[in-house]
Automatic annotation (TrEMBL):
Annotated PANTHER family: 3-METHYL-2-OXOBUTANOATE HYDROXYMETHYLTRANSFERASE (PTHR20881)
Residue numbers annotated as active site: 187
Lineage of producing organism: Bacteria, Pseudomonadati, Pseudomonadota, Alphaproteobacteria, Hyphomicrobiales
Name this polypeptide is given: 3-methyl-2-oxobutanoate hydroxymethyltransferase
Gene Ontology MF terms in the entry: 3-methyl-2-oxobutanoate hydroxymethyltransferase activity; magnesium ion binding; methyltransferase activity
Cofactor, free-text remark: Binds 1 Mg(2+) ion per subunit.
Record-linked Pfam families: Pantoate_transf
Naturally occurring in which organism (per UniProt): Labrys okinawensis
Amino acid sequence: MSVQNQSQRVTAPQIRLRKGGEPIVVLTSYHTHTTRIIDPFVDCILVGDSLGMVMHGMETTLPVTLEMMILQGRAVMRGSSHALVVVDMPFGSYEESPQQAFRNAARILKETRCGAIKLEGGERMAETIRFLTERGVPVMAHVGLTPQSIMALGSFKAQGREETDWAPIERDAKLVAEAGAFAVVLEAIAEPLAAKISASIPIPTIGIGASPACDGQVLVLEDMLGLSDRVPKFVKRFGSLGDQIREAVQGYADAVRDRSFPAAEHTYGMKKK
Ligand SMILES: Nc1nc(=O)c2c([nH]1)NC[C@@H]1CN(c3ccc(C(=O)N[C@@H](CCC(=O)O)C(=O)O)cc3)CN21
Ligand SMILES: CC(C)C(=O)C(=O)O
Ligand SMILES: [Mg+2]
């Protein structure tokens, strides 16, 4: 038996090797049950800090804590056996210093047993990304629109829509690759910029609102399932779970009210003597 590959799980180095190849399929998931359903179909599952907005109705991702990420990371690991699981580092858990980032990344890896972490920021996080990767923590980077900077940005808006805004974003992508990130999320950036970055860096780019020029794509699961009521422009709804839930709950409420549920097959009689 191979000691190297006791599980069939996708690894961060395998994702890294897919630069320029077959597109990398990524979805977010926060729960065991949704994870069980999506795991066979995707290469990578992201436990995103978007869970604060999606599960808890928060207005931004800023209040999300390390404890919340670890709890949902464990739930996702229990539901998956194939995909690489990447857990977002929440706002405030890594920006102070490489040491703070390592301490909290190590907690995430130890307590969830996930395969990698993700953090937001380019040039300003390059030193931290190098510190983590040199110490055995695979890092997925995230540049372009970085939602944890919402208070500085003012709103969730697309980046790099004027050519004069391109240079810092290009530099961010180049520096995270040089620092050792195995992949980088490009969020909400104009297509020509996403194409230029994807063609010029050696690691896979995973786009969300960043055009088909990327090496892979990611969406928030609830958004693509049609379960979120407000979604960004870049979301395509591949399902209509919200409508299906409404219909099912309407049927349940009607059945309870007209006493057609529970029927005989859902009801216990007495044990036969
Ligand atoms: N459910 C969900 N889906 C996401 O994709 C997502 C989250 N939550 N939370 C964290 C971030 C925030 N994201 C967002 C949220 C909104 C827009 C959005 O609506 N942008 C507008 C433009 C708004 C403006 O220009 O001020 C758009 O038209 O896309 C974009 C990205 C992406 N991420
Ligand atoms: C949208 C993805 C990239 C993310 O960071 C999240 O779900 O938190
Ligand atoms: Mg996130």
